[in-house]
Amino acid sequence: MTGHRPRGELVEETFTPEQLRRLDDLAPTRREIDRLVNEAYEEATERMVGHRQNPPRVTFDDLTADFTSDQWAELERLVNELLDEKGVHELAAAADMEIPPFERPNTWTDDAPFTLVAYTEGIREGWPESDIERWIVCGLPRDFNVLNAAQQRAALTERVPLTNTKWDALLAAMVEHVAWLHGHERPAWVDEPERFLETTWVLSPIPSGRMESLMYAPAAFLRHGAIPDPRDLDSRGGERYEWTP
To answer: Domain count of the chain?
Structure first.
């Protein structure tokens, strides 16, 4: 293979029985963290819009559809405040886990249509790695999911230029994954040699998160050698089931 190959950690890790037991032991804590995070989002949104979600049932996307940048900033502040009040940060730290980051939706218009090239913007501009990761792992599948089938096929034909960074592999893996998820052929450009890592890169720095990533990541990520936390792949991006138990 040719091209830039970033350093990473080899996936020659084998899990001891103790590590696997710890992963099982942490599952209830992880579910509790997810529950509290969702609860914080609901409570923060209700404070801002002034009513509860039921009845009738109103989705988070419905409630925040017309939010301005200032409103999103205020919602983020409220969510973080509630996470502190609920002790979520302490719970996650004690269990050596990460809290899913606050995410704002992306808006595509006729004047600024969906394009896969947009997901290299943060790489070219030198964004923090956490923002680039969230943009690709969370933003791309959710934006792709709202397109109709014809728009999805058209978007997949657009070859994304190489950035000569490790992100080329992650972006190719995500595009391959969403193509599979929505019943499309993977585009030929994702098979370019430069979009595969010789040394596998597991994005999570947390031991339990690394184990879950290696055990449960979808095939496209394993193939390209860039492996995100499977918990970041959810129904908002078109996933049909949870990748982790």
So the answer is: 1
